[in-house]
Design brief:
By secondary structure, this protein is α+β, with helices and mostly antiparallel strands. About 25% of the residues lie in helices and about 15% in strands. Strand 7 and strand 8 form a beta hairpin. The two termini are about 40 Å apart.
Amino acid sequence: MKDWKLRMASGLLALGLVCAAPAPAMARTPEHPAGGWVSGLMDLPVVGDLLRLLTGGGEEAAAGEGASTAETAATAETATAESAETAKAAPAEAAAPQPWPQGWMQGAVQPGVELPRADADDPTLPDALTATQWAALPVGQDTLSLTSREETNFGDLTADAAAQAAAAWLWQQGEATADLRSLPVAAAIPGELLTRSAAAGTALADLGGCLAEGDLSLAMVQITPARLVSVLETGLADREDPTGEGYGLFLQLSGLRMTYTETEGAARVAELALADPEEEAGRALALDDEQTPLLLVLPRAYLEAFGLTEAEGCPDLLADAGLTLPDALAALPANLGAADTAALLDRTAPAGRVLPADTADATFTGVVELGADYAGLQIRLLVDGREVTAVTDAQGRLTLPGLAGGGHTLQMAAGEPAYYLSDRTGVGTGAEGSVPVTVTAVPADCVLGPAPTAAPAPTAAPTATPAPTATPAASASPAPTAAPTAAPATVTVTSPEEEPATPAPTAAPTPVPAATAAPTARPTAAPIFDPTAEMLQATPDPTLAPTATPAPTAEPTPDPARLEEQEAARKTSSQLPLYIGLGLAAVGAAAVAVVLVRRKLTARSGHTYRRKP
């Protein structure tokens, strides 16, 4: 009995020493990282607390656990509905505006940015247009409403002004509107309200004369993306039908980008995005989203037409603001700032906010009638403020290939009248039914002379291989081969460095003007060079591009809290075997002591002790 107890105590002591020796090294090897069996012991309710107490890692572990808990509480998965709603409604602090990553966003409202940001008396603020703003086009005895059919630069400008005015009002109302300042602000202006194009040089204060008469006060409602899709599709319904009930409701947008499709006569929103300084393409919106809030600014007279009345859950947030569309246009520089406003007033082409989904990236060829007197000439002109060179055909028609889909401004030179071309409305495309564009006067400086004819490239005559010689005296002479004549290629638009060739004549289009409203006097336009407009250029020949070397992927930054937890676990793992060994040694020593005491008592048990009398 005594021998097996002594052997057990010795075995336990030896086992403790064997475990203590390799455990610290094992804890530091990749095969046994912190978070293995040591972390498992640390996670136990009672054992983990005892181990942290013995190793002195209690405070560090508690701090790491607190940090981990705080991080977990901040994630979307653990956030409660109440906390999410509170964060959403929290008013945004005034922030500096960020540069817009895309041109279509320019002029939109940035959530959380306080307005106005400019002094209305600042002499640097622009007060007049620097480029023609398109809204309507005279066609014979009628007027074609461009803004009722497609996006135009005047439509973009008007929508931007409405959104900026509403955002400025939100920041001027103190705490009463603090919970709305963090919401995106978009604007939608029905195209029929823009009745006349505005010539370059028109004062912003006079732009009200280019708008329809009647109630032009602005309203603002809080809606969801799903409701917004319904509004946009209402505006698309009769876009191409001047006799339709909804013709004229086509919406000019600010802060939004929409692509749409048309199937069997029905127009549907395909994609929708909000302007976002951190996203190149904007922040995509789910078309069926009925939860995300946003603010939409539009004329109050159209609330009922788009189903946005108070009875339908859309109270007017600008009911007491007294904002009007003409006032918003006049106040645009003060609300937006000098530099940003100058870029908007100089915009000759649309920004690309309303696009047909199937032709969003399509191009077309513009056709301009100069007359037979200008046949076969090389002409210099401006397209969207950029200088290009083209040649006319035998009928004096100037063709401009490679124009991006949508509207464009054409001028023969700066200060000359402006002309409009668009494939979406059918103006100046040369196609059947397109409205022709005719330039009645071409400045002499724009004529660069006769279109040069490309000379055929000389071709060297190949040398024939001599025939085998039958006799030394007879030798065959090589037969010369005639060089083929190169056919000149037809070139229409070239850069100044290229030599254009005479284009082949094409048939003249049959003009079919669209009848809409009564004729309106067309202003004389005087746009200037537009640095932001898209440059017209011929499609270059494909060039084999080298394969880019992929950049090395950056290693993820470790979490400090996780590093502290791992360090504490490593420290514990290195110290734990020592404490286990010492504990086992203590148990073994105690067992040996008990055995020795019992042996001593047993040795004395044979003696008889008697009490003295």
